[in-house]
TrEMBL record:
A GO molecular-function annotation: oxidoreductase activity
Species this chain originates from: Brevibacillus parabrevis
Family assignment from sequence similarity: Belongs to the Gfo/Idh/MocA family.
Segments forming domain GFO/IDH/MocA-like oxidoreductase: 110-218
Keywords: Oxidoreductase
Transmembrane segments: none
Classification via InterPro entries: GFO_IDH_MocA-like_dom, NAD(P)-bd_dom_sf
Protein name: GFO/IDH/MocA-like oxidoreductase domain-containing protein
Classification of source organism: Bacteria, Bacillati, Bacillota, Bacilli, Bacillales
Pfam family, one: GFO_IDH_MocA_C3
Length: 308
């Protein structure tokens, strides 16, 4: 049995608490709405994981880390990169781990596509095309705001990125919103080339990927009723097409899938989800893309650091 607590005064806290209670093998220890309540809860109960709801003070996270409690934190929790790194280091020192939400690793289509790639469905990866589109924004870097999940998923599925080249165009409209479009080319360490298209000029959310290798292709479009299409070369040289799974993934909550995965991980039954280290490596790619777009030349990633 894994004992879990929820902390934070965010309106979503009670909903998160209810979500944990629906997972087999979980006991919800309580909900702390203040730092003092969190201190008391962790002192009185043998809590193994705390999920922080919404924006939180760094002192809350620091206390949980010092208590040796695993942490699940929203990506947009209001902490700076430096605070996240410091908290992650503190977790490592105390034998616990900090995980972040908002990851494509638990989105059904992307998780299933990775399984297919790892199992050899497309053979040796060649050209990878991904797209994410959304409505216009009032601010924010398009590479970090929109591309982080794609960058993390590409690393998780195809390995490290060694070179980044990006272009971006932006225009402010009468409403004050910013229309942005970016195209990023990533050269993976194993030789595959990924093309990531980001758009903050769409009328609605849209995701797409086309993953090609020397033995086949996987295709997903969020506007399509089929989750994933695949094709491969037949014995006679003709293409053989199909779909990886019947039906739709509608109604599946990626965050709940992540919670379930974390429980299995804490029980020693599964790998961990997206950690702060993974998030920081994805952010390095986003920063490299931003630098490339500004400088008009490629940026190399060496040993996890951005290097011209």
């Amino acid at each position: 049995m894994v004992k879990v607590a929820v902390a934070g005064a965010d309106d979503s806290a009670k909903e998160r608490q209810a979500s944990w209670s629906q997972i087999h093998g979980v006991e919800v220890a309580g909900h702390a709405q203040s730092l003092q309540e969190l201190r008391c809860l962790l002192a009185e109960e043998k809590v193994e994981l705390v999920e922080f709801a919404g924006t939180v003070e760094g002192t809350w996270v620091t206390h949980a880390a010092r208590s040796g409690v695993n942490i699940l934190l929203d990506e947009h929790a209001g902490m700076s990169d430096q605070q996240l790194v410091a908290a992650a280091d503190l977790c490592e020192q105390n034998g616990c781990v900090m995980y972040l939400t908002d990851s494509l690793r638990f989105s059904p289509e992307y998780a299933q596509a990775r399984e297919q790639v790892v199992s050899g469905a497309i053979g040796k990866p060649g050209v990878l095309r991904l797209r994410r589109g959304t409505h216009a924004s009032v601010d924010g870097c398009i590479f970090s705001r929109l591309g982080m999940r794609e960058f993390d998923w590409l690393r998780w599925t195809f390995g490290e990125v060694e070179r980044v080249q990006a272009n971006k165009v932006a225009r402010e409209v009468a409403t004050g919103q910013l229309l942005q479009y970016a195209l990023i080319i990533l050269r993976m360490r194993d030789g595959a080339i990924a093309q990531v298209e980001l758009s903050q000029a769409d009328s609605s959310e849209h995701t797409f990927f086309e993953l090609t290798g020397d033995a086949g292709m996987l295709l997903h479009d969020s506007r399509d009723s089929l989750p994933i299409r695949w094709s491969r070369g037949g014995a006679d040289g003709q293409a053989v097409a199909g779909q990886t799974e019947q039906g739709s993934h509608a109604g599946i909550d990626p965050l709940q899938k992540q919670r379930e995965q974390l429980v299995r991980h804490l029980l020693g039954e599964a790998a961990a989800g997206m950690t702060v280290r993974d998030w920081l490596l994805a952010k390095e790619i986003a920063q490299a893309a931003s630098e490339s777009a500004k400088a008009g030349k490629p940026v190399s990633l060496a040993k996890g650091e951005v290097a011209q």
